[in-house]
Design a protein that fits this description.
Layout: H1 10-15, E1 25-28, E2 36-41, E3 49-55, H2 63-88, E4 110-111, E5 117-122, H3 136-153, H4 171-184, H5 194-202, H6 209-215, E6 222-224, E7 233-235, E8 241-244, E9 251-253, H7 255-266, H8 284-298, H9 304-330, H10 343-360, H11 362-376
Antiparallel strand pairs: 1-2, 2-3, 3-5, 4-5, 6-9, 7-8
Helix pairs in contact: 3-7, 3-8, 4-9, 7-9, 8-11, 9-10, 9-11
The structure holds adenosine-5'-diphosphate, 2-acetamido-2-deoxy-1-O-phosphono-alpha-D-glucopyranose and magnesium ion.
Length: 377
Amino acid sequence: MHNEVTTYDFKNIIANFKISSGNFDIKPFGSGHINDTFLLTTEPGYEDAYLLQKINHFVFKNIDGLMNNMLRVINHLKEKAEKAEKAEKAGRPAKETLTLVQCKNNKYYCQDHQGNYWRMTLFLKDTQSYDLVTTTKQAYQGGCAFGNFHCLLCDLDPALLVDTIPDFLNIEKRLDSLTIAIKKNSAGLVRSVRSELFFLLERANSMGEILQLGRAGILPLRITHNDTKFNNILLNQHDEVQCVIDLDTVMPGYIAYDFGDAVRSIINTAAEDEKDLDAIQLNMPLFEAFAKGYLGKTVSFLTEQELKSLVKGVLLLPYMQAVRFLTDYLEGDVYYKTHFPGHNLQRARAQIQLFKMLESKKGKLTDIIQQEWLQLK
Ligand code: ADP
Ligand code: GN1
Ligand code: MG
């Protein structure tokens, strides 16, 4: 069972890491759909606290490649932060990046006797992540966080990183998987989702644009995060950005994917899996604030073509999530953690609804980006 403290031999797992031994209190932590995360503490004030994560080996087949990516990116971010701090000479603390804890075998991950893979990071205390964004300050800070992330990594060669999940955001492959799931119909559920399938498949051809522009060399491949859900940013107590987290999917990609996935989780007034479709509305001021923050950090290097692609990403990402959730539903919930039967279908329906709303506001979204850009230029 996922996230059950009693399932794992924590004493032996923790003993692999170079930390002083202690009597840790261990609690499941966070609301991610893929990995299992545990908070380890010895003191009430979190002075000595770590996050221990079981990396989902079913999803990530190349753990060594993944951890090498993560280390390379973290080191690059830390070098940049140190340089910035020296240049400013103001003693302003560098923005935090994740810190991996080394294992006694000098790697940054270990395996337990059940074959599970584990890694540990320092717990950044006095931070929080949000599943739902409610203020323009949070949205603006989110824009700054991901914009800065792209900016700091834009001089690192994407070829140095491996694809931790091949074709992760390749919509053509995602649609192929949906088609296979429909044909197999292993859980016998296809008839019950005919209208959702019809809606998604009707739009399939128009969704490959970013991929085609990339293949044609019109959009550059950069190092992108590829999972820019808002809860993958840590904010401090004043809602200022502290750190971009969840670096498992950092690999070569297109900027529009990250912009689109962040907007997906910011602009929606309801949860990603909202049951009441009428509750799913667009909060345009949050979009404006996010775009302002993001473009402010990327104006120096973003190309005209990338700028134009941002709205395409805003439509593509909820669409792709709907395809992915529905595929998992048809396959019998083998990929995402689910909390009740039909959860993946509920998620897919919510993402389709969000996509419909975004489609109807495409012109407005484009205007906002254009206006923010002109103000910065
Ligand atoms: P998942 O892959 O399950 O989404 P994350 O790496 O995003 O895992 O971590 C899950 C949650 O744990 C995050 O949303 C955040 O709230 C919290 N978190 C992750 N890393 C840290 C950290 N270093 N310090 C404090 N909180 C963290
Ligand atoms: C998963 O791990 P988490 O919850 O941050 C998924 C993302 C999806 C997201 C949808 C490796 O992210 O691609 O966008 O769920 N991660 C992976 O909420 O598949
Ligand atoms: Mg996460």
